[in-house]
Write a structure and sequence with these properties.
alpha+beta, Alpha-Beta Plaits, four-stranded antiparallel sheet, two-stranded antiparallel sheet, 3 helices, 36% strand, globular
């Protein structure tokens, strides 16, 4: 199994929305991928509840059966649409992918 974890710091304002509004839109878009991309085994999106200088604004946790499923997810057209939106609102991103 491959676990995929991403965290983003969002811009204060982007695409005509505040950071909080964009976090909610982002959460909805990411979670909708579960019903569209069959390779996603599990997905969880969290919006940070306790602001601090060290905190990121949005986190994504996904599970895939293997690296091949993850690679299929990465190039899926619906994932790419969400990634395009996230690219417009994101200030910084960190990611870790690991096999268990």
């Amino acid at each position: 199994m491959l676990k995929h974890i991403v965290m983003w710091k969002l811009k204060e304002n982007a695409e005509g929305n505040s950071k909080n509004e964009n976090a909610l839109v982002m959460k909805e878009k990411l979670e909708s991928l579960k019903g569209i991309i069959p390779e996603i085994g599990m997905i969880e999106v969290g919006i940070n509840a306790i602001p601090s200088d060290a905190a990121y604004d949005v986190s994504l946790y996904c599970e895939f059966r293997d690296e091949e499923a993850f690679k299929t997810y990465q190039v899926h057209p619906e994932h790419l649409k969400v990634a395009e939106f996230v690219g417009k609102i994101n200030e910084h991103r960190v990611v870790v992918d690991y096999l268990v």
